[in-house]
Amino acid sequence: RPIHSLSVLLTYQISSEPWFFHLVHLFYFFAAVSLVFIFIKLLTKDILFAFFTGLLFLTNPINTEIVNWVSGIPELTFTIFTLLILIFHIQYRESGSTKKLLLVYLFYFLALFAKEPAAFLPLIVLCLDILFFRLKIRDLFKLKELKRYVLFAVPLIIYSFMRYIVLGVGAQFGEFTLAERIHTAITLFAYYIGKLLYPYPLALYPPFEISSNFKSFPFFLSFITTLIFVGALFFFIKKQKNILAFSFIWFAVFLSPVLIVIGGYWQYRPFERYLFIPGIALAIILGYVCSRAFVYSRGTRYVVALLLLFIIGGSWLIVFPRNKDWRDSEALITKTLQQNPNVHLIRRELGEIYFQKGEFEKAKVEFEYLIEKAPHWKDITMAYKGLGDY
Fold this sequence. Notes:
Layout: H1 2-14, H2 18-44, H3 47-59, H4 64-67, H5 73-95, H6 98-114, H7 121-132, H8 143-150, H9 153-167, H10 178-197, H11 217-238, H12 242-260, H13 279-296, H14 298-325, H15 329-339, H16 344-356, H17 360-373, H18 380-389
Helix pairs in contact: 2-3, 2-5, 3-13, 5-6, 5-7, 7-12, 10-11, 10-12, 11-12, 12-13, 13-14, 15-16, 16-17, 17-18
């Protein structure tokens, strides 16, 4: 992810102070929110709809985990480049300008360097063409359209070659059975939907267990949620509610890399940062509802105003205390272990923090806890090392 490294390097040239890195992060977030507004305005030609969408994306508490985490640059820059791709693609479709099309490919290349799931972006462009620019499936086999989509392969091949040179071949997918992968993918999908609708409490490492029990009630609930999602998508397509159908597709496409690459320690964890760009889908849906209700009648305007006050106020009640959890490593790790005491990696880090501060007895407690409770943890030698240092 060279964009991440480049951003940190350039920021450091200006200032090495932590506040400046956070300021740059806020700038990225402001850029992403602004581009959401511009994208919806270009797509729908409805400034009220665009305003509500931007506002609701801005205030979603789930964004706290990315905006506070200064290493969350990949999510923010990936979102920025994604929106720039779609904005210039719309302008290309409306004007036929070759310059706009070249900018689409340029930002696709940069998006790949920001975060790997950018490889899925041509799917979003295709959905945009089909739903809003009346592109038929058969048109894709015409040389003119086919050439435009094939050209996405050029930056992808260049990126893949460069990635191969640096990282080689292979990925860690973990030793999970097919049943566990299917069960986890469906359960995670429903979890993310629920977390987007009700983002409380925010957590760095939410508890989650791998399972293959298809008869459990949580899986049944997750399966029903997934079916409702798919049913709603087809309903909106059939009723030609294109913006709503597009938002559902957006959510599924941008979440799919997380669900497909299930494995290892990190991939199956339901990290809330993964909801940053998929969260735009919820903002579009709520923005659509609010904008339609706002122009319907004077009474519904008051309802929309009250709803927005409720959303913004509720978001603030979640976000402000959570900001305090991110004030330093010790505060964040302590809060995380209160929510999920089985995050062994975090507990070891807490032991190291105590040790570096000279609070050796506190460090000893954390290392001994790991040795007693997690003797088969893959990095348990680090706990023994910590205890040896003590």
